[in-house]
Amino acid sequence: MSDGEVLDAVWLTLKLATVSTLILLLVATPIAWWLARTRSRLRASVAALVTLPLVLPPTVLGFYLLVALGPEGPLGRLTQALGLGVLSFTFAGLVLGSVIFSLPFAVQPIQRAFESMGARPMEVAATLGARPLDAFFSVALPYARPGLMTAGVLGFSHTVGEFGVVLMIGGNIPGETRVISTQIYGYVEAMQYNEAHWLAALMVVFSFAVLFLVSSIRSRAGRLL
Predict the structure, then answer these.
(1) Residue 161 — φ and ψ, nearest 5°?
(2) Are 80 and 152 in contact (CB under 8 A)?
(3) How far apart are CA 184 and CA 191, in angstroms?
(4) What is the pLDDT of residue 216?
(5) C-alpha 87, offset from chain centre
(6) What is the distance between the alpha carbons of residues 112 and 36, in angstroms, rounded to a whole number?
(7) Which residues does 178 contact at the CB level (< 8 Å), separation at least 6?
(8) In Å, how far are 1, 80, 195 from 103, measured between CA atoms?
(9) In angstroms, rounded to a whole number, what is the distance separating the alpha carbons of residues 67 and 65?
(10) Model confidence pLDDT, tens digit, residues 8-47
(11) CA separation for the pair 165, 147 (Å, rounded)
(12) Which domains does the chain have, with CATH numbers?
């Protein structure tokens, strides 16, 4: 494997992590808000569904997503009917799989931030005449900023480190679906252990930096509360 393929894998990984993180924050925030505020009987079921990727083997999740996105799967039929083609073994498929797989890592810190806020700030905003949507953007979101930052960092880093789901949905196509984790896998298959060691060490350093950043965010949030 050439240096160009390694750079392509790094670029594709960063692109995938960035796009997935932006989508994750947009999707996870309303889910976290609902879970933090609702008294619905469906809360436990929705929470379990969101948390499922934490306990489900990545290959199992990837397999069912591959089936669903395939030509005969429900999502595959839908995307074909919309003129989008089949998303398996494409970058769009990787994004979808990454968002689903990393969803609990984004929802949980935001949910905890909303729950720690309590009901009082929103009640005060309501007495001052703020509509619920205005209060959400002017009160709830600023208060939950540490949770949002943690969710963004965890979602980004978790996407960077994905392997099972990425390999099942996207394969290992150079320049299209080959990311850092599958690049390492390719090196090991080819018995190029020096190259695999270099990339793996890079991932160790990245993981340590992520954990340090998350710890710093939580410590700072604790001092502000």
Answers:
(1) -90, 5
(2) no
(3) 10
(4) 82
(5) 18
(6) 8
(7) 5, 8, 9, 12, 172, 186
(8) 33, 25, 31
(9) 5
(10) 888 999 999 999 999 999 999 999 999 999 989 999 999 9
(11) 26
(12) 3-224 (1.10.3720.10)
Tens-place pLDDT, residues 75-93: 999 999 988 888 889 999 9
Sign for the pseudo-dihedral over CA of 24, 29, 32, 38: negative
More confident residue, 50 or 215: 50
Find how far residue 192's CA is from the centre of its chain: 30
The one-letter amino acid at 18 = T
Cβ-contact 106, 98 below 8 angstroms = no
CA distance 108 to 113: 9
CA distance 108 to 50: 9
DSSP characters over 28-44: HHHHHHHHHH---TTHH
CA distances from 131 to 39, 84, 123, 124 (A): 21, 39, 11, 11
Residue range 109-129, pLDDT digits in tens: 999 999 998 888 888 888 887
